[in-house]
Amino acid sequence: LNSCEVLDLNAADAQWESCAPMESPRAGAGAAILVNKLYVFGGGMDEQNKIETSEAYDPNADRWGLVSTPMLSNTSSWTNLGVANIETRVFALGGLNDTGVPTAHNFVYAPLVYQTFIPAAASGSDE
Question: pLDDT tens digits, residue range 20-55?
Fold first, then answer.
């Protein structure tokens, strides 16, 4: 399933509306909302086609984008996981690995951590 529907409860005539489809159709994924974005981790199209990517939906732009999750690079797939957010982090817990075996993997995703390098200020003399 890669379809998406949105319900804007702030609208006077609140009703479900279609939104942009996900990049990869998936079932058995985990999802959490953090700072007005919906993050979706893991899942698969079926038992043979697991998904190794994560996505985020921005409702203001009505667009899905791939999410960099380097902590998942050592896992070939992850389905039926539990996902929750606490403050500025998303926690992904448990679930099944690519062979269908329950896993005790736990990951923390912190999308708001500042990851861009900027030049340091040069120190000057105190003359």
Answer: 999 988 889 999 999 899 999 888 877 667 777 889
Phi, psi of 29, deg, nearest 5: -90, 165
Which class does domain 4-109 fall in?
mainly beta
Segment 104-111 long-range contacts (CB within 8 Å, at least 24 positions apart)? 105/75, 105/78, 107/69, 107/71, 107/72, 108/71, 109/39, 109/41, 109/54, 109/67, 109/69, 109/71, 111/34, 111/35, 111/37, 111/39, 111/56, 111/67
Cα separations (Å) of 45 from 2, 28, 95? Answer: 10, 9, 16
Query: What predicted TM-score, i.e. pTM, was given to this entire model?
Result: 0.79
